[in-house]
Amino acid sequence: MQKKLTVTIDEEVYEGLRTVIGPRKISRFIEDLVRPHVVKKDMYAAYKEMAEDQIRESEALEWAEGTIGAMNDEER
After folding, report:
1. Chain centroid to CA 33: how far?
2. C-alpha distances in Å from residue 74, one per residue of 59, 66, 68
3. Interatomic CA distance for residues 27 and 31, integer angstroms
4. Is the CB of residue 68 less than 8 Å from the CB of residue 74?
5. Contact 29/17 with Cβ under 8 angstroms?
6. Residue 27, Cα to own-chain centre: how many angstroms?
7. Higher pLDDT, residue 1 or 69
8. 3-state percent helix, strand, coil for the chain, nearest multiple of 5
9. Is residue 60 within a helix (H) or strand (E), and if so which, with residue range?
10. pLDDT tens, 3-49?
11. Nearest to 33 by CA among 45, 51, 43, 20
12. pLDDT digits 0-9 by tens, 38-70
């Protein structure tokens, strides 16, 4: 269920939203920004969602392998 909300913002910010985001997409944009700060997500579901992001996972693996390699190169 959706609820209507009236928000007052500066005209310059509003025009920027219309220009960058588009006039029919502002609500969704704001909801996507706010949601993580106000809606608790099931931790298991969040990890599952992250794991399904193939690009993110490959970047994380690359970073982890680079970190391990750097640790092996350090003098002890």
Report:
1. 8
2. 23, 13, 10
3. 6
4. no
5. yes
6. 16
7. 1
8. 70, 0, 30
9. helix 54-73
10. 999 999 999 999 999 999 999 999 999 999 998 888 877 778 878 88
11. 20
12. 887 777 887 888 888 899 888 888 998 888 765
Query: In the structure encoding, which two tokens stand for residue 21, read together?
Result: 């985001």
Tokens representing 33 are 């920004």
Q: Please, are residues 18 and 26 in contact by the beta-carbon 8 Å criterion?
A: yes
Domain ranges of the chain: 1-39, 43-73
d(CA 34, CA 12): 20
Q: In whole angstroms, give the CA distance from residue 35 to residue 33.
A: 6
